[in-house]
Amino acid sequence: EWRDAATALVAEAALDSTNRGKLLFEAGVIYLTRLNDQHGAQTLLSDALNAGFNSAELRRHLAELASGRDQWNDVVEHLAERAALIGGSGASETLQEVANIAGRKLWNPNGAVEYLQQALEYDNDDYAALSLLRDYLSEVGLSEEHQQTLGKIGDLAAGTLAAEAYWEQGTVLQQLDRRE
Q1: Are 42 and 11 in contact (CB under 8 A)?
Q2: 122-135 per-residue burial string, b: 16 or more CB within 10 A, e: under 16
Q3: What DSSP letter does each residue of 117-167 carry, written as one string?
Q4: What does the DSSP 8-state code read for residue 44?
Q5: CA gap 93, 111 in Å, rounded
Q6: Smallest Cα–Cα separation from 59: which of 103, 94, 31, 88?
Q7: What pTM does this model have?
Q8: What pLDDT sits at residue 121?
Q9: Listed residue (86, 82, 85, 87) closest to 98, CA to CA
Q10: pLDDT one-digit tens code per residue, 96-151
Q11: What would the 3-class secondary structure string for 3-27 be?
Q12: Contact in structure between 59 and 51 (CB atoms under 8 Å)
């Protein structure tokens, strides 16, 4: 029954150039969620994207499929595009996920820093994004941005967390002064 519905959507897509991408997307979702056919879903969802259809849900499905195949560059591409489509705090959270994939799966801490900087453009007081940024900045080397990030964390935190951030900021400042 579900396969018949997906087949009908694909047939309709062949006749309807205006809605082709959306129809292929709907068929792909059926393959993914109802038929548990990841290969068929991948083909249909990619065809939907190639037909000009784009949505946050499409990008999420493509990222999940790519993740299942350990295709981390594709995961990063689809999630970054998803973030641009959804905006706001959802984009910030998605870009934090992208940063962790870039940093941990692709061994690219500089890329992780870039994605976290983008995340903070959506919400510059996001404590989780700032904390991740602090960690990746310490991996790529001490910098003025590192000490500024620590100061921002200190401003947002309270008690011991704030004290730790300010202490670390002071340490980074001392090390930066020694370099000059």
Answers
A1: no
A2: bbeebeebbbbbbb
A3: HHHHHH-TT-HHHHHHHHHHHHHH---HHHHHHHHHHHHH--HHHHHHHHH
A4: H
A5: 16
A6: 94
A7: 0.85
A8: 95
A9: 82
A10: 999 999 999 999 999 999 999 999 999 999 999 999 999 999 888 867 888 788 88
A11: HHHHHHHHHHHHHCCCCHHHHHHHH
A12: no
Distance CA 67, CA 75 (A): 6
36-91 tens-digit pLDDT: 999 999 999 999 999 999 999 999 999 999 999 999 999 999 999 999 999 998 99
Q: Token match 């190639």: residue?
A: 50
d(CA 140, CA 133): 10
Neighbours of 49 (CB within 10 A): 20
111, two tokens: 């890329």
C-alpha separations of 95 from 7, 27, 39, 117, 132 in Å? 35, 28, 27, 9, 11
Which of 79, 87, 28, 83 is CA-nearest to residue 53? 28
Neighbouring C-beta atoms of residue 11, cutoff 10 Å: 12
Length of the chain: 180
Tell the residue number behind the tokens 């990008």, with chain if given: 59
Taking the C-alpha atoms of residue 149 and residue 155, their distance in angstroms, rounded to an integer, is 10
Amino acid identity of residue 88, one-letter, is G
